Amino acid sequence: MNQPRIPLRKPTASSFALNLVLTGFLVLTVVGLFFLDSKKADVGQATLKALDDLRKMLFEPVMEHLNWTEAITQLGVTLGLSFLTTLFGAILALFLSFFAARNLGNVAIGNVLKAFVAVVRAVPTVLWVLIFAIGAGLGAVAAVVGMGFHTVGYLLKAYSESFEEIDSGVIEALKASGASWWQIVFQAVLPATLTALLSWTFIRFEINFTTAVAMGAAAGAGGIGFDLFMASSHYFNIREVGFLTWLILLTALVMEIIATRLREANRLQG
Amino acid sequence: MHQLKVVQLTKYYKQAQALAGLSFEVENGEFVAVIGRSGAGKSTLLRCINRMIEPTAGQVLFNGTDVRNLRNRDLRRLRTGIGMIFQHYNLVHRQTVLENVLHGRLGFKSDWDGIVGNYTHAEKQHALEIIAKLGLDQHTYSRCDTLSGGQKQRVGIARALVQDPQLILCDEPIASLDPSSAKVIMDHLRTICREMGITVIVNLHQVDVALKYSDRIMGVKAGTLVYDGKPDKLSKKLIHEIYGTETGDLIDE
Q1: Domain spanning A68-269, CATH architecture
Q2: CA distance A171 to A141
Q3: Check: CATH 3.40.50.300 for B1-81+169-179+192-248?
Q4: Are A85 and A208 in contact (CB under 8 A)?
Q5: A236 Cα to chain B: minimum distance (Å)
Q6: pLDDT tens for each residue of B194-220
Q7: Is there a contact between B90 and A173 if contact means CB atoms under 8 Å apart?
């Protein structure tokens, strides 16, 4: 009863390479464990201490250097930062993505735009902020411009690919009835892709929120990130870090709920 | 003057020849069926008439003007006079029936009015009348993705009619429909032709439907016209020639 196994797909060069890489990672991970240099620390004790710190952070949060009003205000600053960058980025990206989408604009112009934003996206947001800080100085301005820049790169790709996925027949039908390019974009392309555009914009808003937290710490953009930086690196107060972490987590959760609700509402009403 | 006069129409896709010098005339109010195998050039022929596809050579005269000379605004004006109906309906699924029907008016509007969807009262009235005439008044405010295939195609017809066209081009309008919906659609097309005097040119796969509904049949094979005449003159032998089959019956219901 020993039947030969029937493979589901033919082995290819790329599947072989993938298996090779994954096996390599596995081997390196196992080997790496034997070369860990723990100095003279007792690994067991260190793990317990780390867990204890985590417990203090998450279950004994306190406010020491700021009060509720300040915390909420600073959270507002961070939210404002992410809102502004998403708004600016989305408007610019929407306008440019009409020209970048292969089924709407000139293919050559589209390729140039896509290549350009690929480069923009390849550089991390933090680096863009630091690059713009040369001109604007470290602070909120550099953060908004730098984060906005990366947002355009991200959303332009997302938007234009949403446009490319729409049924080409709809464009053909409106073109055949004599509609102009702008009319086709606003009467067919946008209504058909609205849910997708909203989703992408909200995902980017969430990304921008976490980035804005990091920018507060790394680029002096202010907001809750700066307080987090002060609590951890300046006051070494792990309980205050815990409080701020809870605040940020809850905000992210609320945003996620709002985003889901909006998407649902939009899907139902159309 | 013929409403539509096609002279030596030729189309190449790179090296491949799709249309090999077709010539014919269509009179006002005719119901013409174009039959032929898949890939014979039927769709290309239809789309060369309203310049959705750019012909390589030849002339297409619509009311005496050569459509190949038209640019931008003039081309758009030409297209407002020619409605088009598609196999896959090509509606915006997320919008209502009324919105989709009104899309047929976009070509008459300024860019801005079209962008914001600013339709006049008369246009809306006209659209509602057409929707009612096609028996869709129950669904005026339904989203198009809730409709059946036959209903979607009727929306497609309404969108073409709201243009007040002189000619309607139909590209396989019943190829995705069940027989009873297909009959409803073909009956509507014939009514449009008879009562409103609109010329209808329809690409069809189903020979029996073509024979039953049309005044005139054009058989296209490999980009050439192999038959052009009354349905009753079309012999079994000719049908087999058009479809490139040797003997036996074709599946035509």
Answers
A1: Orthogonal Bundle (1.10)
A2: 41
A3: yes
A4: yes
A5: 54
A6: 999 999 999 998 888 888 899 999 988
A7: yes
